[in-house]
């Protein structure tokens, strides 16, 4: 599946900003299941300094500074990407029990396992707890295949938690998400990550987009899409398998991966500091448009 993606963030200030420095994690990465044909950042006003680096997880991070007064900042990421899916991924993830992967994570020192270790431990927004371990254990009885168990965890989050855009912020603790049984995709991704870590498995937070289709007979609304998040679990001898608890789906050719990390703090789309500005307003517009085969690139 081919897509064009436009992600625009606009800051409007009540007073001029004299200087700002920012970090953007908006450029789509290359993965085994998606090919990034092009991905570029447009910044208005033009920055005086713009640099790109790869972070420890292989994400494309841009740093930029604007050193002259401005009342508005617009950061737009434009990308073209081709995505495929692996319909047999869950079968492959069921070759071993979840305890087998757990044991190998804690006793093997292969390059693959070493790369997974940062996703085994607590991070700012996805910390282990006895409550999360208890919630996960329902899906992870002894000797259950890892893919089947994680799929069950994803389904439980989907059915037992209500999607509520007004419930949480980035600072809402997972304990409240768990007790209130509500949240948004970011919360459900953090919940899945923390549940898996609480039973000794490696899990990572994935940021990206998912194609949204209009109801039958209605035109697609440009700019009505939004950023999305899900989680993935490390499977021995296979690698990472992604699960979307908000939509109760495995990774499909409608999912577009931008970045992954320990949690949202590693892959925040845009953050920075500014001198001046007074009060400000932020607006975000995301458009994921499917392209006919052969028109992208």
Automatic annotation (TrEMBL):
Keywords for this protein? Hydrolase, Protease
Q: Which InterPro entries match?
A: Bac_transglu_N (IPR013589), Papain-like_cys_pep_sf (IPR038765), Transglutaminase-like (IPR002931)
A single BP term in Gene Ontology: proteolysis
Look up keyword Heme and say if it applies.
no
Q: Name one GO molecular function term.
A: peptidase activity
Q: What is this protein called?
A: Transglutaminase-like enzyme, putative cysteine protease
- One short Pfam family name for this protein? Bact_transglu_N
- Which residues are in the Transglutaminase-like domain? 177-247
- Judging by the UniProt lineage, the source's domain of life is Bacteria
